[in-house]
Write the structure tokens for this entry.
Amino acid sequence: MNLVLFGPPGSGKGTQSQRLVESYSLSHISTGDALREAIRKRTPLGLQAQAIIARGELVSDALVTSLLREKIAPLRENTDSFLFDGYPRTVPQAATLAEICDEFRLQPPATLNLHVPDELLIRRLTGRRICPSCGEVFNIYFKPSTLAGVCDVCAGPLVKRVDDDPETTRERLRIYHDQSSPVLDYYAERGVLYTIDANGTTDEVFEKIRSVIEEHY
Ligand code: AP5
Ligand code: MG
């Protein structure tokens, strides 16, 4: 089984990916995480992507696709079940993913679309705090750490993502509606789009995702 977890920034793709990976033994590929890793390591690709991400814009299809291929190739030796988080984000990327699945002999993915109203997305994103040491994600409104600014898991300091300030968040949402939402039509036309109301607790959303998967796969 291959899944695309699709949705606007803050819809819970990363949060639900963690749960899905545990429950269905999927190999998780998040292009956002991969880009942030490339920035941390100061690779040529990371250096190109850094300013683009900080502005809340999309990295070019060519760059992000080369990163995706790099991630899939070694994992494919041991698995045929992937969870794509944050890719595709444009219609050309959706077409490329179909080609990549063919090339790597993977089943075409089903797409789970997490639907959340914009006002709530802004609150989720501006409230997010991450632990750069262990990767744990918190939220000052919805999932606060026990001690403000301190990770519950490793006691490291929590930080905001560079693109989670209010202005960049609004730009990311604008770009989502303009450039990414047409991907929904692409998958709907192919009969593999499942939209989930993701305006609920993490557990409630996961239950909805689980029932879609159990019903169709
Ligand atoms: P990426 O890292 O993919 O960011 P994004 O799509 O903007 O999504 P987020 O990671 O911000 O949100 P999420 O949906 O994962 O939500 P999360 O679970 O963390 O991409 C970053 C950038 O990289 C892009 O802007 C672009 O520049 C570039 N990029 C990446 N892929 C690309 C591509 N394919 N093409 C071109 N450019 C690309 O949750 C958010 C917060 O809400 C957390 O605090 C969480 O605790 C909380 N939360 C989650 N679920 C719930 C819930 N049910 N109730 C209450 N709170 C919740
Ligand atoms: Mg994410």
In short: The pocket of magnesium ion (ligand 2) is lined by residues 13-14, 30, 32 (CB under 6 Å). Residues 61-76 form the longest helix (16 residues).
